[in-house]
Amino acid sequence: MSSPPRVHAEQPERTLAAFVADLTFDDVPPDAVETIERAFVDTVGVTLAGVRADAGVRAASVATSLTPTADGVSVLGTGETASLTDATLANGTAGHALDFDDLSWAMDGHPSVPLVAPILALAEHLDSSGEDVITAFAAGFETECYVAEPVSPTHYERGWHPTATFGTFGATAAAATLLDLDVGETQVALGIAASMPSGLKRNFGTMTKPLHAGLAGRSGITAALLAAEGFTAEETAISGPRGFWDLYADGAERRADPPGDPWRLVETGISIKAYPCCYFTHTSIAAVETLVEAHSISHEDIDRIEVVTSRGAGDALVYPEPKSGLEGKFSMEYAVACAATRDRVDLDAFTDDALDDAAVQRVRALVSFEVDESLPYKSNRTNVRLTTTDGTTVEETQSIPPGTPETPLSEAELRAKFVDCATRSVSTSVAETTFERLLSLRDEESVRDVLAPL
């Protein structure tokens, strides 16, 4: 493996553009390649499920009605095509529609969904190889993290949705890689992207949250295509006065390490979700499942459940009495109640109809949720205390959710999740074959051929 591409310390934008433009497949560490392949598996799977969700259906309908064309690229799981940008909007929205897509604390959000949608659209259009798209993903992920580091977590605390904001830069870098832009063009593309990020946490619990991912991917392709046509942008649109860092978080709080040094894909990695809801609920769900199983507790015998976790959870989980399945994904009370009453906290737990389950509603009303101000803002640590009607109290503390790089889903678990998601749009045989091909994506000569059955 060669050393990371050259960087320029004097200007963050130039440093980043040089890294992206010079990156080759051989530069990407083997561990990072494996992480990227698993990310593609997971993201394509949740996209094939998300296209059947309300947000996915509506986004696909708009995309295909705007640009019906036989020369377009695939809107996954629909048999329809749309333009590069509109297909990216639809696929990105579908990929985030169920909140089942992966995340990384290296950028405080969901890294893959704003990358995979534009990468697959361009890969189908250009007939790119597996090595090409892995390289594009690596460029995009490291870009998301490089832009995030100087302003996180302040950026998130101020109300921005990092999947949308940092994801726009990542999508731009990924598109620039596949379009083979040079250093100057890539820097322009990133400068254009600096005028595009948006996405408010205020819209969590609605269809607009997954739309953020679709918009980020669409913006990334647009920025890269404009740069390729000779568009211009200010050289310091990210780092300069009144640039992205200044406006989105009152300036850079610290300097980012050069992209690829260290590799964020290796150092922090990507966490694949075990549950289709806000990640801040996952340790609490797992803790309740542990208590219920270890002590053979029936939901009928629960008197109260007390949850104490971080300020980040308090900011994100704002629906104590959810009125829809989407709101339920951002409700600690509802998620914990599902863990105590259902066999599995799966996709079916977050439908509108599931909210009416009498047992879940009874337990939800018994859940209290408090913030421990002493914990780091984005800590996943939770303490769950469960008391039964006979006065017995049991307690569980958990800091690491399932599916992290430290506690990864096994290949069998990843396959089960993929097949469960994908078969909502394609046959089991297609799902199984696609899983195998994506898991060895580096060996594929044509990503277009991988996508064709979908």
TrEMBL record:
Domain MmgE/PrpD C-terminal: 275-432
Residue intervals of the MmgE/PrpD N-terminal domain: 15-253
A Pfam family matched in the record: MmgE_PrpD_C
Molecular function terms, GO-annotated: lyase activity
InterPro entries hit by this protein: MmgE/PrpD_sf, MmgE/PrpD_sf_1, MmgE/PrpD_sf_2, MmgE_PrpD, MmgE_PrpD_C, MmgE_PrpD_N
Family: Belongs to the PrpD family.
This protein's name: MmgE/PrpD family protein
